[in-house]
Write a structure and sequence with these properties.
8 helices, 8-stranded parallel barrel, two-stranded parallel ribbon, TIM Barrel, Lipoprotein, alpha/beta, signal, single chain
Length: 311
């Protein structure tokens, strides 16, 4: 009996559906929605630019060792010619400074040179051709070295000269050095008087470099200011750290080992927070007073110079 009732219910249900279809009141199933196309894999984020030998921060991982020079000017340092040979020589010298750090050699190219004559624009400085900067950069990249562009402003405004170098400074392996000894005011001639700068002016340059590192997602950028005497940098206490910039004071004392060490100690007292130190050796001027200091003697200085420069 139960089976008969079930069969009867099914029959009635089917009849009701057929009647709805006939009357046009039943909803016919629509076409199936097309399957969504497979989504392409999301592209991997572009790797951030790195320093020449890896990483994005300079200190305390790296020890920097530099040669200075300009094309065809042996009096300005060893980077005057034969760049491949000089790069290999720099690499060999730099290994003497390892001391548990990663060696990062630096080619410091003087791109703006102070002059004793006013020149066509009255700024008492000359600039090297951009093609020369590219040539030095190509060699630096060949040997995985930093290129550091050195500016001796003469009567020009330092920040103006630095801004001209932006096509290179926006690169991850190019840093900056300024030499305020050669930065003079109106009516002054470089070489006849010591030039000077200020902590506030150096902060302007540091802020500019910091903006570049942010905009182009660059690794930490080296920014060196050379100093021979305390008077060359006024208001040094005003110096401030700038994100993405490693600010380095290079002590450029000349003379005997004792004189150079005394100059170093005198110029790094009360060093503003975040300022690193560098020590400069002169192949000609220093050796007039005795043998050139050895890497071991330089590394014994306190604080340890994080950049050692040979001119």
């Amino acid at each position: 009996m139960l089976v008969l009732l079930l069969l009867f219910s099914l029959a009635v249900g089917c009849s009701d559906v057929e009647a709805d279809i006939a009357n046009g009141t039943a909803k016919k199933p629509g076409p199936s929605a097309p399957a969504a196309p497979p989504q392409p894999p999301k592209p991997k984020p572009k790797p951030l630019p790195q320093l020449p030998r890896g990483g994005r921060t300079l200190f305390p991982t790296h020890q920097l060792v530099a040669f200075v020079g300009a094309p065809g000017a042996p009096a300005l340092g060893p980077l005057d010619s034969n760049l491949d040979e000089r790069a290999r020589r720099l690499e060999k010298l730099a290994t003497s400074y390892r001391g548990g750090r990663t060696i990062l050699p630096v080619m410091e190219l003087i791109v703006v040179t102070a002059q004793g004559a006013a020149g066509s624009d009255g700024k008492y400085r000359s600039r090297i051709d951009p093609e020369q900067i590219d040539r030095y950069l190509a060699v630096a990249r060949k040997y995985k070295m930093l290129l550091m562009l050195d500016v001796q402003p003469g009567q020009a405004k330092p920040l103006d000269e630095v801004r001209r170098l932006e096509p290179w400074l926006r690169q991850p392996d190019v840093g900056l050095a300024v030499d305020p000894e050669w930065q003079v005011g109106p009516g002054q001639v470089p070489g006849r008087v010591f030039g000077r700068t200020s902590g506030a002016e150096l902060n302007e340059i540091g802020a500019y470099l910091s903006a570049l590192t942010t905009k182009y997602r660059l690794p930490e950028k080296v920014f060196v200011f050379h100093q021979l005497t305390a008077k060359i940098v006024a208001g040094e206490a005003a110096l401030r750290p700038h994100p993405g910039v490693a600010l380095i004071k290079s002590v450029d004392g000349i003379g005997t080992r004792g004189a150079k060490e005394a100059t170093y100690r005198g110029l790094i007292t009360k060093l503003p927070k975040g300022v690193h130190t560098a020590f400069k050796l002169f192949y000609v001027e220093d050796t007039r007073h005795g043998p050139l200091m050895t890497p071991a003697q330089v590394l014994a200085l306190r604080p340890r110079p994080e950049l050692v420069i040979y001119e």
